[in-house]
Amino acid sequence: MEPEATSSAAGKGSAGARPHGSIESASQPAASLEDPAHGSRRAAASSAAMGSSSGGNRAVSEPLAYTYFGHDREEVTRILIQALSDMGYQAAAESVSQVSGHKLESPTVAAFRSAVLEGSWTEAEKLLNGATISGQGSGQGGRGGYSAQEGNGLLLSPGSNIVIMRFWLRQQKFLELLERRDTANALQVLRNELTPLHHDTGKLHLLSSLLMCLSTNELMTKANWDGARGESRRRLLIDLSSCISPSVMLPEGRLAILLQQVKQSQINNCIYHTAASSPSLYSDHICDRSNFPTEVVLELPDAGMGEVWEVQFSHDGSRLASCGSTNVVSIWETQTFMDSASLVIHVQKDHESGVASIAWSPNDQMLVTCSRDNYARIWDTVTGSLIKKLPRFDEPVSACVWAADGASFILGTLDSKRSMCTFDMAGDELIQWNKKHRVQALSASLDGRWLVAADNMTTIYVYNGQTRELEYELDLGTQPTSLSISQDCRSLLVNKADSEAQLIDLVTRTTIHKFHGHKMDRFIIRSTFGGANESFVVSGSEDGCMFIWHKSIGAAVERLSGHTKRCNGATWNPADPCMIASCSDEGPIKIWSNRARAAEFKNRPPGNHNGWRPPSEIA
Asked: Is 119 left (phi over 0), alpha (psi -120 to 50) or beta?
């Protein structure tokens, strides 16, 4: 069992929820020029128009039903025309358009599309200025088309803000001028075209700072922008199309989006989802329980490790690291689970108080160990050699998270004077966050947007990972023991000492699900996401069991008995949906998989004293 957080200094009292900033600001990436709500899907190659989107005369001899299996026939037809064009079947798309009488886009919409993709900003703004908002034009559009009386045929969706659309166009124009090193004209656009719109002062300040960039690479990095020859114009068109009525301009890749939603819905409702590949469209998706990791297939000997507090797979799933109450941090190769001298870190006297936590670098070449002797260390995971021992803190080092680029990492400690510090990969301190709360656990989103810290009392702190500004706090009413952010960077999983795991939407700050069944007390027990498509939540428990819940449904899927003492946590192999590792106070690490793999491992010859042994050979 990993001891609960303790500190020689006095603890901080609990507090209520104290938001910092609005929900809107929490959903926007700092210093970013692209609105994440509009996505970055690669758009279709076709930019040719197919005439008016109004009904027209059909080139068929008999009238067809108004609906297609309950769906609007015109909507289905236009979506099919777009999909055929996207896939390169242009002749087929034109044939369907001619036979059905339904057209994909009006000439005005096609001209607007071309203007944006070709960088004809004057023409694009001219067409935008002639647009009207749906429901506000003088004419009445058809069922799926538009009326010529409604401006020039560019019909905006209700609630669209034409000022914001102008801002996006002029912003792209400004950036492309800077890319061409035409600073004088870029400055004129900033002063005379962007600033008078009085939109988003923060972005205007960022755009102003870009004038000082010394190179195109610096510009692209600071602006999070890939240039006129990259995907920036295509992404701009996607942003703009989200404001245009789909009756005249379909969202990019609409059929692909709908099909992906169908697949995701089936995955979300698959109780035992283990398929790593995308489901087929030919049949409904369902996975059999026999493929789910419910069997202990291996037990890794403790090798003097004593209590094991944490296990973590490498990002590529090829290795498994473990730490605990003794002086050993072990790394196992997951194909054979043979332990070799080059993959075992024997810390000897340095970690006399045990290793509380470990963190793989993004490229899996380094491992940071967080020790209760108040030190953190950086290790080479291939040779097992120590790269650097960081300066001593006044209190134990409790957690570590790496930046997505692998260039730096953040340590969390119980030292209230230095509770959060950023170091580079060489171990040199870069930034002190100057936060007054202690840190028991940390988690960071893959996009760098979120950094969440849990103190040793009852509060979690949600930071902007790029600006280090506190966005809001949440008082949970009980001690949080672990944190994990989902791969989609939207959900936060918090394990709590009151025997509850809570799934929180980071943007809306609302609770999505609460998971119950596992037992917790005053010791650190970890939960995390895992499985195919990260469909599950897995946690240890005081009673030695491992609990698995379905993330989308919120229901308990399995309660698996495998340890005789407290199960301190479990982790899912990110590259293998059918492999879980769990650890406990009893020592041996359990490897879980499905029935077929259990039989496979049973028939393997036993390993040496440093390697794996089948469960049947463990006394």
From this structure: left
- Kindly report each contact of residues 117-121 with a partner whose C-beta sits within 8 Å and lies 24 or more positions away, as own/partner: 117/47, 117/233, 117/234, 117/237, 119/172, 119/173, 119/176, 119/228, 119/233, 121/169, 121/170, 121/172, 121/173
Residue 530 to residue 571: CA distance in whole angstroms: 7
What is the rounded average pLDDT of the residues 401-406? 92
Q: What is d(CA 87, CA 97) in angstroms, rounded to the nearest whole number? A: 16
**Does the pLDDT value for residue 405 go beyond 60?**
yes
CA distance from start to end of the chain: 22
Give the 3-state secondary structure of residue 214.
coil
Assigned token pair, 503? 């799934």
Q: Are residues 544 and 611 in the same domain?
A: yes
Instruction: Based on the fold, state whether residues 176 and 323 are members of the same structural domain.
Output: no
- Cα 173 to Cα 182, 231, 241, 426, distances in angstroms: 11, 14, 18, 40
Q: Dump pLDDT digits (tens) for 289-310.
A: 999 999 999 998 765 568 999 9
Contacts of 198 (CB under 8 A, 6+ apart): none
Residues forming beta bridges with residue 410, ordered by sequence position = 401, 422
Instruction: Check residue 69 and report its DSSP letter.
Output: T
Co-location of 234 and 295 in the same domain: no
Q: Return the number of other C-beta atoms located less than 10 Å from residue 527's C-beta.
A: 28
What pairing do the DSSP bridges indicate for beta strands 328-333 and 319-324? antiparallel
Domain that holds residue 234: 106-135+146-249
d(CA 406, CA 399): 16
Residues 368 and 220 in one domain: no
Residue 198 vs residues 29, 159, 161, 167, 465: alpha-carbon distances, Å: 20, 19, 13, 9, 27
Q: Which residue carries 């680029």 as its tokens? A: 405
Q: Which residues contact 68 (CB under 8 A, 6 or more apart)?
A: 76
Is 59 inside a domain boundary?
Answer: no
- Point out the least confidently predicted range of 132-141, 198-207, 213-222, 519-528: 132-141
**Exposed / middle / buried, residue 87 (Cβ in 10 Å: 0-12, 13-18, 19+):** middle
Q: What is the largest CA-CA distance in the chain?
A: 88
Residues in CB range of 361: below 8 A, 6 or more apart? 367, 368, 402, 406, 409, 425
In a domain, 325, yes or no: yes
Q: Which two tokens stand for residue 271?
A: 């109780």
Q: Following CA atoms 415, 417, 422, 426 in sequence, which dihedral angle do they give, to the nearest 10 degrees? A: -70
Cβ(425)–Cβ(361) below 8 Å: yes
Which of 64-68, 202-206, 255-259, 378-382 is the least confident region? 64-68
DSSP assignment string, 430-475: EEE----S--SEEEE-TTS-EEEEE-SSSEEEEEETTT--EEEEEE
Q: What are the pLDDT digits (tens) for 200-254?
A: 888 999 999 999 999 999 999 889 899 999 999 999 999 999 999 999 999 889 9
Contact by Cβ (8 Å): 592, 578 = no
- Band (pLDDT 50/70/90 cuts) for residue 142 is very low
